[in-house]
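[User] At your convenience, examine this fold.
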Amino acid sequence: MGEFASSALILAAAAAAVAFAAFLWRAVAAISLDSPKYRTLSASDLGDPENGSGVSPLEASFGKLRTIYADIQAGARAFLKAEYIMCTAFLAAFGAFLFVLVSRLESGWDYKVGFLTALSFVVGGVTSMVAGYLGMMVAVFANARTTICCLERPESRAWTASFNTAFRAGGVMGYALTGVGILTLYALITVYAQIFDVSMGTEQALLLFECVAGFGLGGSSIALFGRVGGGIYTKAADVGADLAGKVCAGIPEDDPRNPATIADNVGDNVGDVAGMGSDLFGSLGEATCAALVIAAQSQDLVGAGWNAILFPLSVTAVGIFCSLAVSFVATDLMPVRREADVERVLKTQLFLSTAAMTAAVYPVTLFLPANLYMGSEGTFANMCATPEAVAASSDCVANAPLAAFACVAAGLWGGCLIGFITEYYTSHSYRPVREVAASTETGAATNIIYGLALGYKSTIVPVGVLASVIYVATRYFSMYGVALAALGMLGTLPTCLSIDVYGPVCDNAGGIAEMSELPESVRDKTDALDAAGNTTAAIGKGFAIGSAALVSLALTAAFVTRTGVLSGGVNMLAPTVFASLLVGSMLPYWFSALTMKSVGLAAMEMVKEVKRQFDTIPGLLEGTPGHGPPDHARCIKISTDASLREMVAPGLLVILSPIVTGTLFGVQSVAGLLAGGLLSGVQLAISASNTGGAWDNAKKYVEKGCLLVGGVVQRKGGECHKAAVVGDTVGDPLKDTSGPALNILMKLMAIVSLVMCDFFMGINEGRGFFNVGAPN
């Protein structure tokens, strides 16, 4: 193959992704909120028996829709502006901090390395912010358009148009984020390659990719603020709106009288779009950086040239083309024409993307040489000269292309399997959630008990799958295989992000329909679209947790490989190592406590504000004609201020823990800290997300009238429903704040450690200040 075949593939994929995102944007933008064709529809045309038989131009509803749409956009912009001002200050301050500390190498001070690492950090952070802003704006642009597409006639056309609008909006973010991500990373590598001469060997290659690793740190740092801040915002608004509306005032969800509804709809996008996008962007950047740092330590891989070195980016490039090739299945080849089609089409899309990626990735593995030695010293020729030597060491990789394919495929299908297992435990189509719903017969307490039990049990199979993927990866390609498995799990990222963003868009569309007082037939469609989105969102959460665990392990592998901890072994019973292992295992619980309490405090403030408005604005609660408008801006400000204030402590906890540990106790203690954080974090994340998801869908199961107790159908307002609402409210911060944010904890601690490893090694030969003259 040509020397620059990988470069051509990467650039072509990035260009195709950005171009396709622009194409999807134009398709969504073609839907006008002022189209006159909907205003001539009668109530009977819309299948709404409650509006009489006269012709209604729906002018009032369309006026409300445009106002609500503008309010949601304004709220989203206000939050992102406030958050990104804080993030910009953080990038500047922590970038300067990195410049100083990373400049200290084992051999002395090198300010060039510090500057380039800090520059990569800033570039990664800015790219993550751009990705989050783009996703947020696309989501709030498409929500009202999805709503009005539900007015299309005939019925089948309404289903097709509304689904396609939401799915294409998700695709804009999915393809733009992935394309811009690999393009920016490739550009950094190309520029830095002019400074570090890779042809001189592994030392220069290692310096290059350690500097590039700052890109992953920047992306993950912004993802931390997006996930934590966004999670606090969305759940403060959601829980506050639900408690104020359903419990205090007894009005339906998304009722236009509730002052917190706009903040709630903004929050759907803050956490599930901007937060999720930044999270997965960070995973992509970190997994790639981990693979590059590990690869840079192999003389065989570096000597094989750019095609082999850039293989991790080539895997992502193949994923872009595969996702793009099958993207038309959902919108054109197998379009949604009725409610039953929605969930099937989304799952088919995910499955086809995974299958296409599996088939297409093998030719790219031929960029790798036939045989590789992944150790830091020696080559395959002199370290793996006999079959016995190959069998004895996982660093000896015979038939590297096939081994790489096995690792990528294991990650691909492992992620898919974890996603569908998560769906089994969180969808009311299956037994576990139905058991949780049935437990509401005896009140909220048994509902809570059943939900917690489900969450704990749901960790068993995903952890088994992750263990199997890790075994396959390390068995066939040493620690480099773990990074490739993580990239494989992220291989269908454009499709996964398209499906993830689809859910919040449909959720917003339903809220807009309710607040605009459009006919019930519109809300029925948006609810059905959203229900399928909830199912696929559960798959997305499982996928995100699984990929975060593999990325964290890959980064930890890069850290221990770079510091030499792996070759010397880690004594887990050494005092500082075992103590760090315990502390690392505790950090996810401390982190979760901070985020959960933050949601509770902000929700209390929101409830009090809504109650104040009901008490002080005449006619608001009663819905009296001509009553004063609710103060949505005040509720948005409460959520924004709370999220920005409360995200600081969890962020400092995650970033400073490895820095303090490495500085005081050395690199072996950092290895213990990272292992503890990963082992407890992945299981707590799965449990929290699945518990909250199960409670949410158990409530929906009751609301649909599917629960029978003593032969009597249980419905909204009954005792079973009240118990289900309690579970759902408790579970909201678990599944949308603490659970997803733990992904960042696992990854960010590891990437901070990797970027700071030279600084740690420069302190008493990696022992830290408190271990002078004593082994770890």
